[in-house]
Amino acid sequence: MIKTKLALLVLLFILLSFSISSSAEMINGAGATFPYPLYSSWAAAYNKATGIKVNYQSIGSGGGIRQITERTVHFGASDMALKPEEIEKSKLLQFPAVIGGVVPIVNIPGVSSNALVLDGTTMCEIFLGEIKQWNDPKIKALNPKLNLPAKPITVVHRSDGSGTTAIFTHYLSSACKKWANNVGYGTSVSWKTGLGGKGNEGVANYVKRTPYSIGYVEFAYAKQNKLSVAILKNSAGQIVAPDFESFAEAAASAHLDAKNHFYAWMTNAPGKKAWPITGATYILLAREKNDVNKSVIKFFDWAFQNGDNTAKKLDYVPLPKNLKDKIRTYWKSYIK
């Protein structure tokens, strides 16, 4: 009888140990849709290399901020960097993971991708509902060779809390005083016109189904789904297309400082080739979760060492080496 009880206790201990070990082999994160294609690829490669699973739920930056603030995930992800005072108040850590771009997508029959040119003023007034027709004189002035239709514009925006929205509306705020004064920027804003879609896929689906519409999505998503993209006149007055080089030039002007938990914006950046709607996407950690944080940073450190080529293939800009080194020093100062 004693031997049987002993055997049961040993079995229970083994099962419990296995359960604890198994849970330690799973890292759970949630947040921004912007980096989802990349984090998914990194996670698959990391699992193959280490056996550790990284489960990342693409729920939007607002959800990522909320879940890490409530301590229901191991890491949150947001395309809107939190201000240093917000990081301190919520007892979080924050660092960038990769850089990418947001692009306007359009559905104008007869107009191909990269053919329509817009600028900060026209984008602002379209999304305010002030420019209502595709053949408006302000759009025609930027596109003298395009046969633009006398059709009403349907605006599509995100309905969920979104870092893509934060980057897009920060661009509009920096390029247009009317937008800054009447709407502002953030993961959610009070839109003046248009339809709301959930996630990149929701916005894309509305635009694809609705002739004469315009929306915005993350660039890798637009490229992978072969969506029609508008190009932009940047702050230097140059017409630029979204690509690796134009994102990299915008990122080069950003001042990312560990003392401010790397808080920075890259929208409307200077530079002749700079894409004006560029942004970093960030990882958020609960400061007190030391052991969990060690597992999370092992994953991102592995990605920093092994994931640059994957990032480039998916049209993201990997962080430069000096910034990765700054982030590693930042980790060491908080995670023991």
Topology:
Layout: H1 2-24, E1 26-31, H2 36-50, E2 53-58, H3 61-69, E3 75-78, H4 84-89, E4 92-107, E5 117-118, H5 120-127, H6 137-142, E6 154-158, H7 163-175, H8 177-182, E7 195-197, H9 199-209, E8 213-218, H10 219-224, E9 231-233, E10 239-240, H11 244-252, E11 278-286, H12 290-306, H13 308-313, H14 321-334
Parallel strand pairs: 1-2, 1-3, 5-9, 6-7, 6-8
Antiparallel strand pairs: 3-11, 4-8, 4-11, 9-10
Helix pairs in contact: 5-7
Description of the molecule:
The protein is an alpha/beta fold and 336 residues long. 44% of the residues lie in helices and 18% in strands. It contains 14 helices and eleven strands. A hairpin with a 5-residue loop joins strand 9 (231-233) and strand 10 (239-240). The N and C termini lie far apart (47 Å).
Give a brief description:
By secondary structure, the chain is α/β, with parallel strands linked by helices. It has helices at residues 2-24, 36-50, 61-69, 84-89, 120-127, 137-142, 163-175, 177-182, 199-209, 219-224, 244-252, 290-306, 308-313, 321-334; strands at residues 26-31, 53-58, 75-78, 92-107, 117-118, 154-158, 195-197, 213-218, 231-233, 239-240, 278-286.
